[in-house]
Amino acid sequence: MKRTPFIVGVVAAFLLGLCGGAFSGRLAAQPAAAVEVKAGSFVLVDAEGSKRAVLGFDKSGQPNLSIFDERGRVVWSTRASALLTGQQ
Length: 88
Known about the structure:
Layout: H1 4-27, E1 42-45, E2 51-57, E3 63-68, E4 74-79, H2 80-85
Antiparallel strand pairs: 1-2, 2-3, 3-4
């Protein structure tokens, strides 16, 4: 009996096993995305970690959206009550 076909088969099985293991993470089912996210506020940061926007509540409990420049200064802000009543 020649050993060449046997060795070729073992090597092929080994290589195919490696390939299967390498791709199994990509083929596995991914977890489902969250249907709902709850939080008291959401803070958007840039690549350096600086705060650029905040969606949350002001001190009186009213919804508020604020946008900040690269220095952390508020460049735009609004409150839900101001939008509803036409105040600024």
